[in-house]
## 1
Amino acid sequence: MSSEEEESLALAGLAVALCVKRAKSASGSKRGRKWSREWLLKRKTYTHINLLAELRAVPKDWKNYLRMNEETYLNLLSLVTPFIEKEDTVMRCAITPHERLTATLRFLATGRSYEDLKFSTLISAQALRVIIPETCRAIYKVLQNQYLKFPQTEEEWKSVAGQFEQDWQFPHCLGALDGKHVDIIPPADSGSLFYNYKGRHSLVLMAIANAKCEFIMCDFGSNGRNSDGGVIQNTLFYRKLTNKSLNIPAEGQLDKSHRVLPYVFVCDDAFALRPDMMKPYRMGDLTGHNERKIFNYRLSRARRVIESAFGIMASRFRIFHTRINLSLDNIDAVVMACCVLHNYLVKSSLSYASADCFDVENINCGTTVQGLRAEDSNMMNIARRNQGNPMEAAKIIRENFADYFISEGKLPWQDNFIE
């Protein structure tokens, strides 16, 4: 055999050896590649759904786990199922609506990260990143029309005002207005856009509550840099208020009084005094004016509903005790789902907002034991600011309310709260 033939045979052998090596390498790589971790494939065995089945025998623990009783949960599940149900594939069985909803409620109730939540749900963090925002949007979609309904007619506004007068003895009140900062992990390269006056990053939730501590308006998404009462000017509500397109009733005579006063929203020092928005007198304006102190007490009493609403929601959904680390769109979905769930549970679950959630007044001593407040979480008040000189008409209206509260609208115990 010539040297050329030997060289050709050697090259051919080398080529065969390389091909065999590549084939083995490819085969080994395929055997080593897994589409899912083994323990995640055992969802039916280890998932928290099994724990829930056990908790059915202990209703209190079920409620603590999902923030609602079983009946309320099953009703919610029936509503959202058409929007979150997926079909099985030849590769795997779909994650059920029951698993999707319970994982979402646990995320909202605990504020746990996806990486943490995957161990109890046996759903991968990658899947949870899709499932939870999608389910939050479904919750908001199915509940908003019935449970987060903004008044549209004069009759509906008068119904809200009538409840305020009955429960809180503040006539012609259309709602209590306030805003809170919601802590977030800011998007990359956002700079100081979300940086607020407390040195944290946030988005602002503006809301109005009715006399039953239910939200009738929620507007979320203004960046934390707008950290004062001016943030309300970015809301659709404020634009309609200033354009007089909310169908608010015209001023009218108060019950059992000759006074004619407009319908108003009550708010705190973060907002400007307007003919349709009443805020308290400043401390420097109270000296020697008991009627103004009484006004501040009566207004504060009516405003408690929004403070309690925020406080109860933040207590039940501890996602508000964290810095929410999601995309901006998904943060919006999470927060709005919590707002509508709050209303849903106020109406559907008696134990959701128990008596100890609310302020308790001792009318004999003139003291108040404070209930739940959002400040116990990471939610912060919007900053106070000097609003400048309010319009004269607004000052006159406030004085008229103050005069009413010390005359025909007087409460027997109110003087105890200003001594």
## 2
Amino acid sequence: MRASFIAFIGLVCLLVPAAALDNGLALTPTMGWLHWERFMCNTDCDADPQNCIREELFMQMADVMVKEGWKDAGYEFVCIDDCWPSQQRDAQGRLQADPKRFPSGIKKLADYVHSIGLKLGIYADVGTKTCAGYPGSLGYYDIDAKTFADWGVDLLKFDGCFMPDWHQLGEGYINMSRALNQTGRSIVYSCEWPLYEWQHQQPDYEAIRKTCNHWRNYGDVYDQWTSVKSILDWTAEKQKIIVPVAGPGGWNDPDMLIIGNFGLSRDQQQTQMAMWAIMAAPLLMSNDLRDICPKAKELLQNKQIIAINQDPLGKQGYQILKANSFELWERPLSGSRLAVAVMNRQEIGGPRRFIISVAIMPSWKLCDPKCNVTQILPTYKEMGVQNLLSKVTVQVNPTGTTLLTVNPL
């Protein structure tokens, strides 16, 4: 097999991340549930009460997260996205929830979520309006930060629509970060600063990391395989820039997990879960937890995959090989361990064999003198003790991924 290696691997392993946002939060990637991809801006509660954006939806999801093992697996945030506010601020200039869909108010919702051991996230926008046209925070950063803190919000997703001058994006995100910190409440800060700046110039990731706990780089994920592929392709293309800045307190966010919805096959769902773990991505599901198939639930709650994602070393993985419709990714883990993902990008035929050896993966040297290899996906399998000269063969389905861990002995 002819292999083209990424020359910066050693550099990535040595680079020290830029200083993180000093709020003590998101020391491992954030885990939770977010409404947008599955429920979008459905505000017609008369016609579709089961799926509209209202307080009952979030209470129901919170209940399911506790009762069905999601909280125990590590998913702790229930996050509201766009379309929750009233179209007008109140007389004091504060955001207010839509009175028909959130009659109890956000504070009561936060109190309920907290009472069952979870945390509440909310959405706002750095510009004059949110992406769906609700009031934005431009000119109201301090008021909105205080409002969210008073309500007991634990995470803010801060979008980047309707900024009159893109040159002000960075200033706006920095100002809201400062305002959140000044409230004295611990609020995870999820930014979309680089997503909107890439359209004009390469973002300053050192500044972003000092400002945000995680940040979106690329467009919204859709419930389709082509969308997941485009996110992975962009990440690999830009990995020299974005991988070194990720680490405890600040993470690259490739967007929501769409596992359990309509658009991905079983193998493609496994690929998204494996690759989000390799990329040290926030695991924010957007699906209907009230009605999710057992296989998707099992995948999303897989303890071995979540352990890779939440590894305390906090290094993001990267692509080291792309050849013959295969991709090989690796992620350094604590304890000198390694996570390895082999993805089959071919979309025709059946399972294909891929052989891992030191010849194509220099980091395999950690198997000198010996290592133990465990397959996590597509099924759990102990592959036994290997050495520097071993060649490990895996079978990978079309659009699927085989996920391994390598533990030096």
